[in-house]
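ok so for the tutorial part 2 we go from a plain amino acid sequence to predicted structure tokens. step 1 is just haveing the sequence, like this:
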Amino acid sequence: MQSLWMLVASFLFSIMGVCVKLASVDYSTAEIVAYRGAIGMLMIAMLVRVQGGTLRTGMPRHHLVRGGVGVISLWLWFYALGKLPLAMAVTLNYMSPIWIAAILLTSAWWRKQRGLTWQPIAAILMGFVGVVLLLRPSIHNDQIMGGVLALISGMLAAWAYMQVRQMGLLGEPEYRVVFYFSLTCAVAGLMGTLIGKSVYAAAGEVTWHHLDSRGIMLLLAIGVTAASAQMAMTRAYRLGNTLVTANLQYVGIVFSSVWDVLIWKVSLAWLSWVGIAVILCSGLIATFYNAKTNRKSIPGDAISSE
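step 2 — the prediction. this is what the tokens look like for a chain of 306 residues:
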């Protein structure tokens, strides 16, 4: 039953995606990243204060690397959300289990390990077939860049998840990982906005937009849903069955597809829906392989998400 927290996390992440897509019309990606990080950081800080924890860490280098990779992944995904249909962007970003399987397979080949199974190869091949089916029938010329960036975002997210798992196994609590990632987002978003201001000021473009009531509500919703979803996901991975929890993450694609139909009246081609189904199946295979590999290597499970 604890794994069902992933349903809550997936639903909240889908709402975050909707808000990011709506906010991207009026705010730059750097601004959205900055506000998302600042609000999440404040939420975690208040939670730590209430529960009597501490934010002191002995792993500054690990947090810096994880934060850097994670914020680039988040930045690319937020940009893609503004350019692609919501379900398409979420599906491409949720390919991280497939990329993790690819990383584990490459590592096994590099170490010349025996007993390699068919699951990772099947997952990787199915994943790429699903991407082709998803993108080719429906993507437009102005969406190609968004599709590529969403794909890269999923690859970087896989790397970030493995870093988070390593920190968890070394004893770093999840709330610190979430806090310092949010802090990195806030700093990176602020720096990106300031750099953009110096670059585009001559062209007369606005890089830090005025906050109206609609913008405040959207940005606040992004920060709150992102931080809440992270906490729900962390609880699911800590207390629930790892395999069930990881598979329930893909329900987020269904939620995003529903939002696409209800809000943007998006009608994907039938081959695109086949592509989503293929990616879902490949993700399930990759999850089984990843869980099996983790059980053989090191006990314990801890994964967080952007």
